[in-house]
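Example record for the data management plan.
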Amino acid sequence: MQYLVEYMISILDNNWLRILMNVVIMAGGKGSRLGGMKKPLLEVCGVKLIDRALTVAKTINGVDKIFVCVGKDDLNAFKDYGDEKTAVVLCPGQGYVEDLIFILKRVSFPVLVLPADIPFLSNRVVMEFLNKALECKTDVATLNLCKGSECGEVGISLFRGLGGSWCNIYFDYTKEKELRDIDTYEDLQWAMGLCESMEDLKRLE
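Corresponding structural encoding:
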């Protein structure tokens, strides 16, 4: 399959890979298991989840443009997020897969997809994923977090195109803190508990 655009890879002095690419942040979640709360706008440790995703995206070398995919009911809440590097895009709101396909058809590849519901997402873990994803020769590489033999996707993927070839990249549960998303009240309580633990450590310093 012919990719829509060429991409360049060069080795930096720190041996991380630099990619010329776009980033899509999926921020259209309805939060149905959280009583309808808008997950991207939830604050954990004083930081909104969407801001966490944007901060990570903006610290990745070689990112050209960041696209934030939102539904029509959330468009007004995100109106101030657009800038010279970031565009807020109105997606159909028909479901995650439908919205993802919608926006991928409108941006240039390669595309890094990030979720807007991981409170402790870090540049380090995303760069580790990208280094592994670039070893795959498939159209899509997606990150799975594993606990024992059970693995699940966390919403982080690298798309080189819309073909059908797929590569799964597995991270073990030692990276739970950086990759656990907020889907339920239990997840939210877990994240808030970590905030309190970090505050306790700061007071002891």
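Summary line stored alongside the record: The longest helix spans residues 185-204.
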